Amino acid sequence: MSETVVIEPEPEAAQTLDEPEKDKKKFKMPNTYVILFGVICLIAVLTWFVPGGAYDLTEDGDAIAGTYHTVASNPQGLWDVFMAPITGMLGSGAISGAISISLTILLFGSFLEMMDRTGALKTAIKRITTKHAENMHLLIAILVVIMAFFGTLEGAYEEGIVYFLMFVPVMLALGLDTVTAILIVVLGTQIGCLSSVVNPFSVGIASGIGGISAGEGMIVRLVLFAVSTALVIFIICRYADKVKAHPEKSVQFFRRQQDLLEFPAAAEGDLSLSPRQKRALVVFCLTWVVLIVGLVPWTSLNPDWTFFEQFTAWVGVTPVLRELLGCDMVPFGSWYFPEISMLVMVATLAIGLVMRYDADTIIDTLIAGAAGLVSTAFVVPLARGIQVVMDNGQITPSILNACESTLSALPPIAFVIVALVLYTLIACLIPSSTGLAAATMGIMASLSQFAGVEVYIMVIIYCMALGLAKMITPCSIVVMTCTSAAHMSYGDWVKKVLPIFGVLFAFCCVFLCVLVIL
What we know:
The protein is mostly helical. The protein has one domain. It has helices at 11-25, 32-46, 78-90, 99-118, 120-131, 136-154, 160-173, 178-195, 200-210, 218-245, 256-262, 275-295, 298-301, 307-317, 319-325, 337-354, 359-372, 374-377, 379-392, 396-407, 412-429, 433-450, 455-469, 477-485, 490-517, and strands at residues 53-54, 69-70. It has a two-stranded antiparallel sheet. The longest helix has 28 residues, at 218-245.
């Protein structure tokens, strides 16, 4: 018995024929790792053409203006390119390793995974979103001010990914997108860095190198902090209004449902908390309080405030407490990533015990949370690898010397604008507050005096450039980790933030011109 076979054109085949044409029209931005490795390769190529150079250094390792001289170049080859991320992770004699930052990111993943398992944080977040459903602008303003406060106080930067993971479920529950959370974290922390009212890691070090007190220009920086923070709040609120009214206009709208599954808030219904959940929230909140107190540089803000140093020293000589707590405690105000990692690990275990989970459940949760942020943790050494290649290739001093030659004969208003442009470009490659200050401030402070610009204004320019650069450069850890966690391409981030960057840059130029005129 024969059958009649009807051959019909396959729709998939027709689509396949059209796909190459569509692919030609649509450019797909490489992922974060490809971009960062590409930058490493580009810098390595530059080391073959940019002459090697060096400056004479002070006893503290700061460059001295006018002492630039050429040295034998050190072109970076394939070995150096592939070793750069490894050195970036482990560190070297001149560059601190990123492993402590990556470990902190992994442990924060465990911390948040444990809180997610309790359900307490989801319920609390749902309560917040319900309470502020009609006050979206107020909520955004509060979060931006908190981020700006951290940025201006202690240079919040690498830990931005932690705040992003905290805020993103709230933003999604309000009908916004992951980009809103990134804007709050990146613009918030970096607007604080941009003004740096009391940040000892930027304005403190830069002022010291420039030969002035960190108190000079503090009132000006405080005004800058207030005005720039208000401007950022306005910008983010406008974006939030647009996304709220037209969700399809979000660049991340295509993965809205995936984001809701990945960053869930509590489901509708009962928002009550069990006694165990309440205790878990108490531990969670206390962890953040201890973290903030540990990071605030108390003695830098007030040299007479030495309570924590004295208390730690007292513990170290008290027999029972010394054996119980240990002799190597780091006082509050001197904490950094190792101490943060320890605190978060202890808090994760404490929450598990409060919830009465068994040991296997606690350890499995810890590992699962860390695994979720492995890809984000690997971004940090790649970004640090760029600085490794620049320093090993000895081209950083040569780039600084070119800037020195450009700025030497400009009038004050032109000087501050060109200095901001050049400083921002340099900061895009060296987004480290201490590294940028040590490499450049000795030179730039001297140049500012030749141009008739006060040194404290040059310190402000340095802070502005650092804050602006870390909003957009692929070397910025906060940008690359937050966009990676949100599954947002770096190209989409640049398209979104570039107009905002332009507005903030113009604002900084106007602010500097007013300072020079007054």
